Amino acid sequence: MLSGQSMKIDCMKSANELNLTAESTLRELPVWTDYLELDHPGYELSRMFEQNPLLPGVILTRDRECVGMISRRLFFEQMSRPYGLGLFAGRPVEYLYNFLLPDLFILHEETSIVDANKAALERSAKLVYEPIVVVNRNFQYGLLDFHQLLLAYSQVHLFTASRLRTEKERVQRAKADFRDLQQNYTRLLQNEKMIALGQLVAGIAHEVNNPINFIYGNISYASEYVQELLFILKSYQQNKAYPDIAKEAQKQGIDIEFLMDDLPKVLSSMKVGATRISEIVVSLRNFSRLDQAELKFVDIHEGIENTLIILKHNLKPRPDRPEIQIIREYSNLPLVECYAGQLNQVFMNIISNAIDALSEAYKISVGDDDHRARSKVKRDLKIYIQSKLIDNNHIMVRIGDNGLGIPKNIQAKLFDPFFTTKPVGKGTGLGLSISHQIIVEKHCGDIHCISNPGKGAEFIIKIPIKAVHKEHESLLCE
């Protein structure tokens, strides 16, 4: 079936360079075809990963027939454990494979990119970064990097948005009632929050992955220590003296002093990981407000802070820019009656745009010959968030940045559906349009932008403290 033990093709053409459509399948994506027979020594597997830092995993075969796969992450996780390298490096790969028994996620090459992305994201947290095995009709196997699938899914979404823009232009030329069409499209596309999940999943998975590895990596040690403690307890039940128990434990390879010292550390590490996961889950739950689909009185500041936690990975320093600072100026606000989940979506859209604007401003500044301008931007990437009570009936939230600002001729179009100033593949032009609908139509509020070129941009949100209740939703803000 396979033509070699370690066949490799140059497959890492970026998914952004592929001409994908909404009907595209996995067959159109690049895959890795690196194979290794199970009877080869483990150090060959290590050599393959070292020779190609981008290789996501290796397909394992017996007599050239596929039997499984081992990923880069799982391999180096095992090799980094005590005695891992010495135990498996010189033995056949089959020993390591039988020890790990890794899960295999297989999809046919005719699976659509949209369906494949959905299925991949439904995997457990520890498997979300694992490569995907793709099989064709001839039962030939390849590995698809999970991040390549995310990039492909983003391009499919971009293609869909492009088709919607084309439809918008056609309706304009036909002089149809474009205002109604805008409203219908915006309502149909209010799942932008779910689409944005594809962009957030990598960051959230990264935030969750570390504490999960904390716990998962210590489970085996904790289990081993518990077994050793049970052995000691059974010895005590037999009324043996401590010196005799210590000798028997030593014969069993049990170091009692090390056990007493290391077990509390292992349990403490697992507790830290569990606490961090709990904090992230609470933040995600509060952000989405799954239990608050109706109007509820909520703390606006809590929604902003949960949004910042979700975006934390985007605020951290990157190779192409420094950390973005958040400057908070909160006032004492009453609880506000609103659709909390939708309002959090507005905060997400505006803060995400501010992060993109600051990143772009930094790239432009570091390309400038003016050293003073470079130095200023390097140490001064900031997002300002201010809240205040403006009267007895309304609150105001201001979110601004110190980026390059927005030209006057563009400001009037910011809230138009499908309008975007971002490069192709970076934005859909729906975020601010949906934000405008949420604030104005759903909350009877107001949102606008003020900006001076070179001095950043600021979005000002004003909503009532108590929602306006009327019999028909269409009359809510009239």
Task: Describe the structure in your own words.
This protein is α/β, with parallel strands linked by helices. The chain folds into 3 domains: 15-151, CBS-domain, CATH 3.10.580.10; 197-286; 292-475, Histidine kinase-like ATPase, C-terminal domain (Heat Shock Protein 90, 2-Layer Sandwich). 49% of the residues lie in helices and 14% in strands. The protein contains 17 helices and 13 strands. It has helices at 42-51, 72-79, 84-88, 93-100, 113-121, 146-173, 178-188, 192-195, 197-237, 242-251, 256-288, 300-310, 312-315, 340-366, 371-378, 408-411, 431-442; strands at residues 35-37, 57-62, 65-71, 106-108, 132-135, 141-144, 296-298, 325-329, 336-338, 382-389, 394-401, 446-451, 457-464. A 5-stranded mixed β-sheet has the order 8-10-11-13-12. Helix 12 packs across helix 14 (340-366). It is globular, with a radius of gyration of 28 Å.
DSSP strand tally:
13
Mean pLDDT: 79
Specify the CATH architecture of the largest domain.
2-Layer Sandwich
Please name the fourth-level CATH homologous superfamily of the largest domain: Histidine kinase-like ATPase, C-terminal domain
By DSSP (H or I, 4+ residues per run), the number of helices equals 17
General form: globular
Distance between the termini: 70 Å
* Helix-strand category: alpha/beta
* Fraction of residues in β-strands: 5-15%
The CATH topology of the largest domain, please? Heat Shock Protein 90
CATH class of the largest domain: Alpha Beta
Helix content: 40-55%
Could you spell the SSE succession in H and E letters?
EHEEHHHEHEEHHHHHHEHHEEHHEEHHEE
Q: What is the makeup of the main sheet?
A: 5 strands, mixed
Main sheet: strand order: 8-10-11-13-12
